[in-house]
Design brief:
Among the domains are: 151 residues, Four Helix Bundle (Hemerythrin (Met), subunit A), CATH 1.20.120; 93 residues, no CATH class; 167 residues, Beta Polymerase, domain 2, CATH 3.30.460.10; 141 residues, Nucleotidyltransferases  domain 2 (Four Helix Bundle (Hemerythrin (Met), subunit A)), CATH 1.20.120.330. Helices cover 59% and strands 5% of the residues. Strand 7, helix 31 and strand 8 form a beta-alpha-beta unit. Helix 13 runs antiparallel to helix 14 and helix 15 runs antiparallel to helix 16. The termini are far apart.
Length: 941
């Protein structure tokens, strides 16, 4: 006896329930291994159905117990070899054998739940494939399938059978019907042949269903249900894929989305089936966190309970293990709802099996690990009980017995004493109900009266409240219904603000700009803690509030798992975005995907700064790393798309050279990206593609394609504004510059201000070899140096021109004006240029100025501190508004945010502090620079 023998795998044995039936089985298993014989007798003594299987398949079983897995695999494989004349009887014979062995391996603990349901499902797949082939072959022989021959039978001429429900998940129960959706690929037929083809496929589907479903003297194969297809009352049993796709796009409901979580091509043209399911992903897996699905799932649960009369307390007699309280469906709804919520954002959650889905949900933080473990254990137990009540008479039932005798039978099959079984069942059903009901209850907002008292202390302006129903987000019945449940809690939170009426107006502005509300309101209902963050944002930052109203989906990131974790860094961000882009189906989707991804990370940086989780210096670096990650990941995508028409980049390719704040690695929430594109044709005159272009024109158009990719107002908005005015010859020059032209210009023609700008240049994206060469060239150009007195004189004149051209916009304009950001940056760049080196960080530039004896060490420290204060105000201010901060337009929350961020007790203190800072910094720079001549050259700045 080998280890594969059934006897070596038995871990439990059902108790004898009907001794007379056990005795009747003895002659049929004469000579069997004693352990197997005991298992068989215990099984058939409790289950008349199993006794009937044994009577017909005892001889097959005698050989099969030697190696159950191999025996069942042979039966499954044999379905494909059945001749047409033996198809119906042969499939029924195979079903008997698989059912008999699965029952014995289940009752004896030889197979796990997954092995039992897997064997039943694999046979269902094989039976569907064989029955479909038989039905389709008959239509082909009769000439009813235009253009098809028997050579088309392997892929069913483009027809696919989608397994739904438990069959799709590889979880068929012991006496399960099979839910199928039958579709065909209409593109394989001429339009004139469409109706004939559809008629042929419909007939083949009916024949397949009859072969599987009809009860004959040999039994039946599987009860077959074709009603999960779109609108089954009016649609044929086999539909064109295009028609089904249109239905789901326009009319699909949440329960159909949930059904397609488990959908799987099981027979026929599997490749066409996978293509169809891929096309349906946007319907099933929403890109946002879909908390609206919770209410839909809850409504479905209640509807099932009401329809089946399954409400009330848990009592064991007659309790439905599938649909009743604490039953299998509760666990499945619990799992699938979470998958629907987050599966659009995380492909790892798009699993079919219940247990494996719970495991991944726990790994991803969507389900507490202990809850997932408990529910998995209960699910396996529930399914085990379900199998035993079905084995008794092969009945499609999920109900526990009604009588004491029935419970005694079940206890014998479970190898348990009756009191132990009853206690275990009640405890497990109650635990499942408590866990799952708690989830759906927690996902519903409190009733209106629950928070009424919290808002009673403040009376809001009813003119504001009354106009809310006219806003776009509240025009849908469902949106209004969810919001009305949220409203008391929101008003209570607004009432707790320092200035409630001011907070109300800020929220009113946000609500007015919200184009749709169901998803956001559902998210807030399921996660009430987000309401405080929402009110904080809209009260403090009008700019962030406008962004949020237009892009409410960014709230998904707050509860997506890593919103408050450590910043990943530019390298990890680039990898994340590259992985995201690799999953998008086409170029336009890649551009929209980039916008969606970048918007969430951009929002994260802003919220962290707003909430004091990071400082302005950190936020500036993170904004820059995000922009660089976008450029690094998107540049090859744009290049590859451009190359489809015009061929690969000629020569060595092109790099993106970051300038200004991008090159320095410090941006604000509203910064443009200053860039140059430098390419090296390496002697190649033109590209090689379908439509070749001269190298110069190629890179000019490629650059324009990149600018469009960044700035085009697509469905997901713009990415960034791009500024290329720092290129040689400014706006009059070409948008892309060859390496040789860049070198020649910088060495022979560049103005001082252009070399000043070059001190902050840094290669962001492009081929490694060319990137290294460009970086080396920039360093060499700076090393060639400029006389210190010339640099300082030019900077002094530039300051004068800047002052004449634009005055600062009040005391909170931290950028423009003497002693402010731009002024200190320009001075630091002068120090770097005098030293003949790059200075991406302001510390390096001021250090270079000190090394050149332009300023003292104390002045360097003071200017660094002044710059830090200016940057903090600039970065925090840009979070509040795209324009310089105006004190009369700030609410109290905005004033407190700015004061707190800059370490001041009051907003008035902040104004005083900044005015003094500007004056002190300006004086130091004035002292260090020569007095500009009265007649200045009109050098461009």
């Amino acid at each position: 006896m080998t280890t594969s023998h059934l006897s070596s795998q038995i871990t439990r044995t059902p108790r004898i329930f009907d001794s007379s039936r056990a005795a009747d089985a003895a002659p049929l298993i004469d000579g069997f291994d004693p352990a197997v014989a005991g298992l068989v007798q215990g099984a058939v003594s409790a289950a008349p159905y199993l006794m009937g299987l044994l009577e017909r398949e005892a001889e097959w079983l005698r050989g099969a117990v030697e190696d159950p897995d191999t025996a069942v695999d042979a039966v499954i494989a044999g379905a494909a070899e059945l001749a047409a004349s033996d198809l119906a009887d042969g499939l029924r014979r195979g079903k008997r054998r698989v059912a008999l062995m699965a029952a014995l391996a289940d009752l004896g603990g030889a197979w796990s739940l997954e092995q039992v349901t897997g064997a039943l499902t694999d046979y269902a797949d094989a039976a569907c494939a064989a029955a479909l082939r038989g039905g389709l072959a008959a239509q082909i022989r009769r000439g009813k399938m235009p253009g098809l021959t028997e050579d088309d039978l392997p892929d069913a001429g483009g027809m696919v059978v989608l397994a739904m429900g438990k069959m799709g998940a590889h979880e068929l129960n012991y006496s399960s019907d099979i839910d199928l959706i039958c579709l065909f690929d209409e593109t394989r037929f001429d339009p004139d042949d469409f109706h004939d083809a559809r008629t042929g496929f419909v007939r083949a589907t009916r024949a397949m269903s009859g072969t599987l479903n009809d009860l004959t003297a040999e039994g039946y194969v599987f009860r077959t249900d074709l009603r999960l297809r779109p609108d089954p009352a009016v649609t044929p049993v086999c539909m064109a894929m295009e028609a089904a796709e249109r239905y789901y796009e326009s009319l699909g409901r949440t329960w159909e989305r949930a059904a397609y979580i488990k959908a799987r091509p099981a027979a026929g043209d599997l490749a066409a089936g996978e293509r169809f399911l891929k096309a349906l992903r946007p319907f099933v897996w929403r890109r946002h966190l879909d908390f609206a699905a919770i209410q839909d799932a809850h409504d479905m649960r209640l509807a099932i309970r009401e329809h089946k009369g399954l409400g009330g307390p848990i009592t064991l007699p007659g309790h439905n293990m599938k649909l009743g309280r604490g039953g299998i469906r509760e666990i499945e709804f619990f799992t699938q709802t979470r998958q629907l919520i987050a599966g659009g954002r995380d492909p790892d959650l798009r699993l079919r099996g219940t247990c494996e889905s719970l495991s991944v949900l726990a790994d991803k933080g969507w389900v507490p690990p202990d809850v997932a473990e408990v529910l998995t254990d209960h699910y396996r137990y529930h399914r085990t009980v379900e199998h035993r009540v079905q084995m008794v008479r092969d009945a499609q039932t999920h109900n526990l017995p009604q009588s004491p005798e029935g419970f005694a039978r079940l206890a014998a099959m479970m190898d348990k004493d009756l009191p132990e079984l009853e206690a275990d069942l009640h405890e497990r059903l109650s635990a499942v109900h408590e866990l799952t009901e708690g989830f759906f209850a927690a996902s519903r907002a409190p009733a209106p009266d629950a928070t009424k008292e919290a808002a009673a202390d403040h009376v809001f302006d009813h003119q504001v409240l009354d106009r809310w129903q006219s806003y776009p987000a509240l025009r849908s019945e469902r949106g209004l219904e969810i919001f009305e449940r949220l409203k008391p809690d929101l008003l209570a939170r607004l009432a707790r603000a320092a200035k409630p009426d001011e907070a109300l107006l800020a929220f009113d502005g946000f609500l007015a700009g919200l184009p749709a509300g169901v998803q956001l309101f559902s998210l807030l209902k399921a996660n009430p803690q987000l309401a405080d963050l929402l009110i904080d944002i809209v009260s403090t930052s009008p700019a962030l509030a406008v962004h949020l109203s237009r892009n409410a989906g960014v709230f998904d990131a707050v509860i997506g798992g890593d919103f408050f974790s450590d910043w990943p860094g530019q390298g990890a961000l680039t990898e994340m975005l590259a992985e995201t882009l690799a999953t998008e189906p086409d170029y336009e989707a890649q551009l929209d995907g980039t916008r969606r991804w970048a918007r969430e990370w951009h929002f994260r940086i802003g919220v962290h700064l707003l909430r004091g989780l990071s400082d302005a210096a950190t936020a500036g670096r993170q904004y820059a790393e995000l922009a660089r990650a976008v450029l690094t990941a998107l540049w090859p995508v744009v290049t590859a798309q451009f190359a489809l028409r015009h061929g690969p980049p000629p020569g060595r390719g092109a790099v993106l050279l970051g300038m200004g704040s991008l090159g320095a690695g410090r941006l604000t929430a509203t910064s443009d990206l200053d860039m140059l594109v430098i390419y090296d044709p390496d002697g190649q005159d033109s590209s090689e593609g379908k439509r070749p272009l001269a190298s110069r024109l190629y890179y000019a158009r490629l650059t324009q394609a990149m600018i469009t990719a960044m700035t085009a107002p697509m469905a997901q908005g713009r990415l960034y504004e791009v500024d290329m005015r720092l290129r040689p010859s400014g706006n009059q020059g070409p948008v892309a510059t060859s390496l040789s032209s860049f070198e020649s210009y910088q060495k022979d023609e560049a103005w001082v201000w252009e070399h000043l700008a070059l001190t902050r240049a840094d290669v962001v994206a492009g081929p490694a070899a060319l990137s290294a060469d460009v970086a080396a060239l920039c360093a060499a150009i700076l090393r060639s140096g400029r006389p210190g007195d010339q640099v300082l004189s030019e900077v002094a004149q530039m300051r004068t021109r800047i002052k004449a051209a634009k005055a600062p916009d009040g005391p909170f304009d931290a950028k423009i004006g003497a002693g402010r950001l731009q002024d200190i940056e320009l001075f630091a760049q002068a120090g770097a240029l005098i030293q003949g080196r790059a200075a991406h960080d302001i510390v390096d530039g001021l250090g270079a100025a000190e090394a050149s004896k332009v300023i003292t060490a104390d002045q360097r420290t003071a200017l660094q501190q002044a710059y830090d204060q200016c940057w903090t105000l600039q970065c925090a201010g840009r979070l509040l508004s795209a324009h310089p901060v105006q004190s009369d337009k700030l609410g109290q929350a905005g004033e407190k945010f700015l004061a707190r961020t800059l370490g001041c007790d009051t907003f008035a203190d902040l104004e005083t502090q900044m005015t003094q800072t500007y004056a002190a910094a300006a004086e130091m720079i004035d002292t260090a620079l020569p007095v500009p001549p009265t007649n200045q050259a009109n050098e461009a700045t």
